């Protein structure tokens, strides 16, 4: 699954720089997570960094984007290949 940021977000700015996939950005009212880039930190860390640093615990799993660990790992592989220098 991808993660999502709920409306409990206080816009504290700590999650965005922690995301290794640049999946988090400022939305209209609160930060948002791009499900196409979110791997729940699979391939990078044991636990999602944004969840670990969030002071208000407002980053649950997004039930609209159900993915297996294997799918998240495949997404991680694709994203890191895109970052690799040509």
From TrEMBL:
Keywords from the named record: 4Fe-4S, Electron transport, Iron, Iron-sulfur, Metal-binding, Repeat, Transport
A single GO molecular function term of this UniProt record: 4 iron, 4 sulfur cluster binding
GO cellular component: cytoplasm
Pfam families, A to Z: Fer4_7
Domain of life: Bacteria
Record-annotated 4Fe-4S ferredoxin-type domain positions: 1-25, 29-64
UniProt-listed NCBIfam families: di_4Fe-4S_YfhL
PANTHER family per UniProt: PHOTOSYSTEM I IRON-SULFUR CENTER, PHOTOSYSTEM I IRON-SULFUR CENTER-RELATED
Protein name: Ferredoxin
The species this protein was found in: Usitatibacter palustris
Gene: fdx_1
């Amino acid at each position: 699954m991808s993660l999502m940021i709920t409306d409990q977000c206080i816009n504290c700015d700590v999650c965005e720089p922690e995301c290794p996939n640049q999946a988090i950005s400022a939305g209209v009212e609160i930060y948002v997570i791009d499900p196409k880039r979110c791997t729940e930190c699979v391939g990078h860390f044991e636990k999602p960094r944004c969840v670990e640093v969030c002071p208000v615990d407002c980053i649950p799993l997004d039930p609209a984007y159900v993915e297996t660990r294997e799918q998240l790992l495949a997404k991680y592989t694709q994203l890191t290949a895109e970052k690799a220098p040509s």
